[in-house]
Design goal:
Helix content is 43%, strand content 17%. By secondary structure, the chain is α+β, with helices and mostly antiparallel strands. The longest helix has 32 residues. It starts with a strand and ends with a helix. It catalyses: L-aspartate + L-glutamine + ATP + H2O = L-asparagine + L-glutamate + AMP + diphosphate + H(+).
Length: 638
């Protein structure tokens, strides 16, 4: 994996030194092991190589073959399927380069792993840019005055453009959603005419324009996998899950994991520790926990401190080196300015983003180069389809089977039969796409002006409708904007930490496999999330399978804020008052909420809303200044 950037001038004009400097300089604070560039007439390519794998030390990027130029940010998981005899020591970039030489348009779909690449055929005056299928990595790009600019970071493109404008459509969708969602699509950025490659997308650029297409559809129709018995399904699942996990374990240093007390990360740990044990290696585990001494009660359904659970997991597997991370120096408000530099675009989830970034940097300090996790498990390996499955049986008239499943669920999970029948009938009969409109602190007039109000209302109606059935749930969970959400910020974390995140539960092959399974492979005979609770029962720690609580990360966010509430409220009020005439944010409403209430009485999301709204205002100060300076420079007389 690498940081990549470049400029391609189809007219072969000399690339100005100032532009080359702007592109390269933006990566100065990233954790890069080796810097390389390639220059020719009208071509400037760069690569900041990071040694995530042992083979990466032999990477020769950017590169050239004949009339073709190439640079890539690539870590291939399915190497063994792609290499030829004698290529075992080849770095991943060389493997991808050979695939591109053989058939550039087919190469992207052959890769499983983290990848963003640019291939320029000078003889055809054609550039191919593409990203991996599940959105691990990507490039931003823009075209201006006959030149293509691309970069793993957004900042150099904003700096290098002669004319820069704000993308109000993107920003109004961002701030108009009164929740933690950041994106409503997968290609736009806060700057007009600056885009990014979407997950599983190929973009062809010529002098005449762009052509875009997707090479993989995560929610497309698949042939249903029909096997003879549950034992055969179990064997197929475990074989694939082991393969997906093993292919992430190529770290040039130690291998780390985001470990919680839940099914997903623990199931990844189960397989990873087994594989690493055979190599004589340990798995380095990191768990986000509350500040030392904090006791937080969120009721019987939530576990706010997973320390004991992960300690038992480490004892169960023996070869786990466990680190409990409370990050006392990290603060959801006071750490925000520094984190904003890392993620480049507005973000909404300080309670998760900061500790993920902190753990990846801590892992780097401990000598880890790859960190794995199970963040996508709710849509794949531990998908819970019980309600959707019962509703499906009722809709199709399979009443005897439904009765049998409800009886078994009662025996195993102790849910009452009456509640399950009532819930199932309601799920079928009382479907509604209506939902409560939440406003937050956005100016309603701003949303109407940009068309965001109508757009966001339709998205909410569609999402509410889709979430009521299994097919719709998959449309939401496997949408390209979801893959973008999981990849946008972690690419930046990798660039700044020097640690690569990979997730076996997000593997394209695992998505394809789970989408092809019959629904009773996820729920049957009183068992929910069967692939973990039943098929991996002998591999999982008993205390994890017995737990009925849901882990809650960053449960101490409110406490961290309350400890310095006077200074924080003063900061928020100052920022809101400095933006009293803002056309996007209703700062008056925000000020009234702060002045008329107490932080102690606020819900957690109320505090999060204040954080991301004030961060947004500060972000827009810089963006408006940058765009203003660009536009003034553009209209100056020559």
């Amino acid at each position: 994996m690498s940081a990549i950037w470049g400029i391609i001038d189809f007219e072969k004009k000399t690339i100005p030194e100032e532009e080359k400097h702007l592109m390269r300089e933006a990566f100065e604070d990233c954790r890069i092991d080796r810097w390389e560039t390639l220059e020719d007439d009208g071509v400037y390519l760069g690569c900041g190589i990071q040694y995530f794998t042992k083979e990466a030390e032999r990477e020769n990027l950017p590169d050239r073959t004949g009339s073709c130029y190439f640079t890539a940010d690539v870590t291939i998981q399915n190497r063994d399927e792609l290499i030829k005899t004698g290529e075992e020591e080849l770095p991943d970039g060389k493997i991808l380069m050979r695939l591109l030489e053989e058939d550039p348009l087919r190469a992207p779909e052959q890769i499983v792993g983290a990848c963003a690449a640019v291939w320029y055929d000078d003889s055809k005056k054609q550039v191919l840019m593409f990203s991996d299928s599940v959105g691990y990595h990507f490039v931003y790009y823009t075209i201006e005055n006959g030149k293509l600019y691309f970069s793993s970071l957004l900042e150099p493109l904003a700096q290098v453009r002669k004319e820069l404008h704000i993308n109000e459509r993107y920003l109004s969708d961002y701030i108009g959603q009164d929740n933690l969602n950041v994106f409503t699509e997968c290609e736009e950025t806060p700057f007009a005419q600056v885009f990014r490659i979407a997950p599983a997308q190929k973009v062809l650029v010529t002098e005449k324009g762009l052509k875009k297409e997707y090479y993989w559809d995560p929610i497309g129709k698949r042939k249903r996998l029909r096997l003879g018995s549950d034992e055969e399904y179990k064997e197929a699942f475990l074989k694939l899950y082991r393969r997906c996990t093993e292919q992430t374990l190529r770290s040039a240093g130690k291998t780390a994991i985001f470990l919680s007390g839940g099914y997903d990360s623990t199931s990844v740990a189960a397989l990873a520790t087994e594989i690493l044990r055979d190599r004589g290696e340990n798995l380095v585990a990191y768990t986000s926990v509350p500040l030392k001494g904090c006791v937080i009660d969120r009721g019987e359904h939530y576990e706010t401190d997973e320390s004991e659970a992960v300690k038992k997991t480490a004892e169960f597997y023996k070869n786990i080196d466990l680190h409990l991370c409370d990050f006392p120096e990290m603060h959801p408000w006071f750490s925000a300015p520094e984190y904003q530099k890392v993620c480049e675009i507005p973000y909404k989830s300080p309670e998760n983003s900061l500790w993920i970034d902190g753990i990846m940097k801590k892992a780097a300090e401990d000598g880890c180069r790859i960190i794995i996790g199970g963040m996508f498990g709710n849509g794949t390996v531990s998908y819970d389809n019980a309600r959707h499955y019962f509703a499906r049986l009722l809709c199709r008239g399979h009443l005897l089977r439904l009765r049998r499943e409800i009886n078994r669920m009662h025996e195993v999970r102790h849910y009452t039969r009456k509640s399950m029948w009532l819930t199932t009938v309601r799920d079928v009969v009382c479907r509604s796409s209506k939902g409560e409109r939440r406003i937050g602190y956005v100016q309603e007039s701003y949303l109407k002006k940009t068309g965001a109000r109508k757009r966001l209302d339709e998205i909410q109606r569609r999402t509410n409708r889709w979430m009521q059935n299994e097919t719709g749930y998959h449309r939401c969970f496997f949408g390209r904007d979801t893959f973008r959400h999981y990849g946008e910020f972690t690419q930046h974390h990798s660039l700044y930490s020097g640690v690569l995140l990979l997730d076996p539960t997000r593997d394209r092959r695992m998505v394809d496999f789970c989408m092809s399974l019959p629904p009773d492979q996820f729920t049957a005979n009183g068992k929910m999330r069967r692939m973990i609770t039943e098929y991996m029962e002998e591999l999982m720690p008993p205390h994890i399978l017995k737990s009925r609580k849901q882990g809650l990360q960053s449960a101490d966010q409110k406490l961290r804020i309350l400890r310095q509430k006077e200074a924080i409220v003063a900061d928020w009020l100052r920022i809101y008052r400095e933006h009293a005439e803002d056309l996007r944010i209703d700062t008056g409403k925000a000020i009234r909420d702060l002045e008329n209430g107490k932080l102690e009485d606020c819900e957690d999301f109320d505090l999060t809303r204040h954080i991301y709204t004030t961060c947004f205002l500060r972000y827009m100060d810089r963006v408006e200044k940058l765009c203003g300076e660009k536009n003034r420079k553009q209209i100056q007389p020559v």
